[in-house]
Structures are given as structure tokens and as C-alpha cells.
Amino acid sequence: MPDHSFKYPTDFIDDSHQPITSWGGVPYDVVKNLPLDEPLHLRKSQRPLAKNLRECIKRNGMSRLALAGMMREMRLVKALRLIDAASQGNIKDTALIRSLFHHLEESEEYFHALMQEEKMFQQLHDEWRLHRSICRAFKIFGPHLVSLLIEDVKDYKPKFGSAYLELCARVAYKVTEAATEKEIDPPSPAEVAEAIQKDSSWLPRVAKKYVRAYIYYRMPNEVYLISPNGVILLGGDWRLYDTSEITISKFH
């Protein structure tokens, strides 16, 4: 259970830092291209187990009722519901799905291969969910900086609505015209690193001595990890980072 007795230091907030607090968002021309909707190929119904279960039932020419009748360990109505749920990717009970393929006379080797495909599918789905989380935050805040706290204050949990005000900061950017659409031109990682080194006033309000690193979300597909001393530690593709625990969307 979380330690609700945790108290962060009285000097945790540095009042000299005054980040931009308006939630203006980014131009629509940028937002409309963000991948916020779940791709068709990553929906539950397209899970390898679900797809292959439907195909096996069709290939065997077996009705749902006949398959349900083979599941003698449960009532017919319940078996039908479970078959329908499994066919749409809504069942996580591996033993149950294995029994369905067994009744369809598929080998254990066949099922094992499907489970390997399932792991790959889940990995792709998890990556997409992470990227969606980043894109949602980008839609609201645009380019932004997130503070990663040191171990001594890692249990700090911001109050509702205060995560952005204390741990994060928007990064000012230019808007440019490209052809018929607007584009944004955020500061380079080197420019942000220099601002961190100089302890610029627009940084997150948390005092720098409690920050072990900053994550700079320059673009939805471009992320940088920068030390409190202004050294770029890592940079490039967002997939380099497991940011699921620190993206802004987790605080809302």
C-alpha cells in the first residue's frame, strides 16, 4: 500500500521557476496527424488467438453450439458466451482458450506457436498504448519537459491537477507555415539543455536538487533525457524510453 504519511520537503517547490501555465495546445494541423485512434490491426478482435479461433471454427465447419456442447465442464449458455468472448479477443484465460483449440483438434505445437504470436502482438499493442499516451500529452501541452525525481522524494504524489504545475513545463516553440499547413519548430535539445544548465525561470517548479533528470518531449516521436546539469544523456526515438510511469497522462 502507498505510504500516505510521506511529506515532501518544504523547499521542494522553487518559486523562482514560473513555467507557462496556459493549456493552449498545439495547432490543429499538428494535432490531426497524431496517432490517437487504435489501429485496426491492434484491436482485440485481431489478436492471433481470436483470429485463429474464428478461422479454426470456420475451417472445421463446426457450429458454435456444437463446440459449446463439447465443453461439458460448464453450462451450455455459459460456454456459448465464453466462445463468443474468446472469438473477439476478450478472454485472457489461456487454459480455456487452449481447451477450445483442443476440441477443434489442433495440436499443442499449433497452440504454442499461436502463443508466441500473441506475445509479439501484445508487445506491439503496449508500444502503441505508450505512444498514444505521449501523443495525448503532446496534444494538450505541446513540447514539454517532465521532471524525474530522485529516490528521496520518489514517493511524492502530486495532488489532482497539480502535476503539470509542479513537475512539468511547456517549452515555447515557433509556428511556421509549410505549404498549406502549420508546423511547429520547438527548441533543439541543445537549447533546452542549455536552459536547464542555466536554471532558466520557465523550468518545472520543483527545485532542481530534487530532480535526477528531465525528459524533453520535443515531438511525439522525438524524446530526450537530459541531466540537471544540462547534459543530454539519451536522445532520439521515443521507443528508447519506458515512460509509462512518468508521462503526464498518468497524473490525470
Briefly say what this structure is.
With 252 residues, the chain is an alpha+beta fold. Helix content is 37%, strand content 15%. It has helices at residues 28-31, 48-59, 64-70, 76-87, 94-103, 108-141, 163-167, 189-197; strands at residues 144-149, 168-170, 174-178, 181-185, 211-219, 222-226, 232-236.
What can you see in these coordinates?
The protein has 252 residues and is of the alpha+beta class. 37% of the residues lie in helices and 15% in strands. It has helices at residues 28-31, 48-59, 64-70, 76-87, 94-103, 108-141, 163-167, 189-197, and strands spanning 144-149, 168-170, 174-178, 181-185, 211-219, 222-226, 232-236. The strands form two sheets. A five-stranded antiparallel sheet has the order 2-1-5-6-7, sandwiched between helices. The chain has a two-stranded antiparallel ribbon with strand order 3-4. α3 packs across α4 (76-87). The radius of gyration is 24 Å and the shape is elongated. The model is unreliable at 243-252 (pLDDT under 50).
